[in-house]
Write the structure tokens for this entry.
Amino acid sequence: MNEKIENTSGYDVEEYLNKELLRFTTAGSVDDGKSTLIGRLLFDSKAIFQDQMDQLEESSKLRGEETVNLALLTDGLRSEREQGITIDVAYRYFATPKRKFIIADTPGHEQYTRNMVTGASTADLAIILIDARQGVLTQSKRHGFIASLLGIPHVLVCVNKMDLVDFDRDIFDNIVREFTNFATKLDISDMIFIPISALDGDNVVDRSERTPWYKGPTVLHHLENVVISSDKNLIDFRFPVQYVVRPNLDFRGFSGRISSGTIKVGEEIVALPSRKTSRIKEIVTFDGNLDEASAGEGVTLTLEDEIDISRGEMIVRKNNLPRVENKFEATLCWMDDNKKLDTGTPYLIQHTSRIVQGYVRELRYLIDVNTLHRQQDAETLELNEIGRVVIETAMPLFLDPYKNNRETGSFVLIDPATNLTVAAGMVRYASPRTESNRDDLMFTGASMNIVKAAVSVKRELREERNGHKGHVLWLTGHVRSGKSTIARGVAQKLFDAGKQVFNIDGDIVRHGLCGDLGFNEKDRRESVRRIAQVAKMASNSGMIVICSLISPRQEMRDFARALLPEGTFSEIFVDCSVEECRKRDEDGLFTKADKGEIPNFTGVSAVYEVPKSPEFIVHTETESPEESIDAVVGYIQTKL
């Protein structure tokens, strides 16, 4: 039978499939109303079928309740209904005209931390419920910490049961203030607060008349409109190979789901771990070939060259490689009921489609998820405990930090004896010798237990040999302002004049020195720190160092200046308006940033601080590149 089945329901299936999907999780203490909120959300958005309502009414009557208990909709286990608490992770699906949703209702009890980690691991947003009568509890802080640990980019804090405190604004404001102060210690980029009554539906789907002082969105409005497109990593192309397709002698393709990034036909790629190169010949799908594919799509890639690639290996871009490591640090959540972590036991480590044998070589410390304190003398991890560990594998893995890439930054530990998953992990790259509370600082200290060696040849002698002084030219400005063009031109003219020149380009170092960093504020600062230190060393050897990078914050540029002797650093402002930079953008980066496809893009979603008092300014909007280059060359000659 090859008859085509017609859709007679009147429901547009294609429209539903094309809707943007938001995955969110809920967390809260006992009786904070998580399940009630979800039930209310589904009920008021008309996402509950009649047979489900009939079952809810019957279950509520059996419990002796006069009204329908919407919490029973997600508490599906018998033990959950009997105790009136959430134990297991319950998933619910619904859609509105704007979006489709997957809800993970997770338990709030400390003894079910592993369940919360499981449910929240794929979430785009976390809803944390706080009882207005109880205020911010230890459990509330624990849920915020776990949301931060799992890299959930958006957090919605619902202050529930406002009806039981007469919708007192002061109570709401105090909770907002206390939780916000705590959240400053966490890595949460987007957080809002909404006063609600899940039982009565206030500010859940419809705005409540009982909170005239609240002007923000309702829960559903926020869920429908929160921007998640910019959360995807569309920069780092990662394609773990799941299956090699060989239907005949004329076709050999590599199938899998793109973990992150985008890829186009004709782009150059590298196969890991062999590091052999080729180009994308075809991007094959069931519905036909594509010119371009992006994160989340399942495709089959064919290459122009015959390369030996098997399941578990990875295809990436040539100039954007992950870390290839067999020893790394990670945060580990232990999930086994029966066994504790044993640093002498070999485990199977599954990372994307690759499974290798490995050991947890060291437990550096255990994290108290309630207080965020570190227990340095911990010897093992037990059920629901979280700790920082060092892992060593028999074969290398292709890793990215979890904060940059959830897909290639996460893994699970499997007990080979039982084949059960015993832990879930998130890759970190902090070195034991530099670990400190300096995440948000421009760090200038030295490594521990290292003695600073004496300089063999002094700076003055090198400058005398070179025939000129060492100096750093720091070119800063917007994307497409002309920094790199000027830097290359100046370097060439100085080199032709017999000068010792070293050019450091901000984009080029992203493929090596700073290849492990993203583009958030913290990583940008770290990138500037590394480049400034390299510039310092090159300048001390008597070279003219030309650094061209956005370095959007004045603090970053001041940090680089402070590393060098007075008079040997020049801040060059490459002045060009954002409007003109947009006109020059042939690669469409600004357009992608406007759509939210490139997060933290300077001039669109990230701020650029114009230099306060630069040593020199070039106006590339009105000057030709040659004029700007000559102007900078003329300036530096006065400093040598």
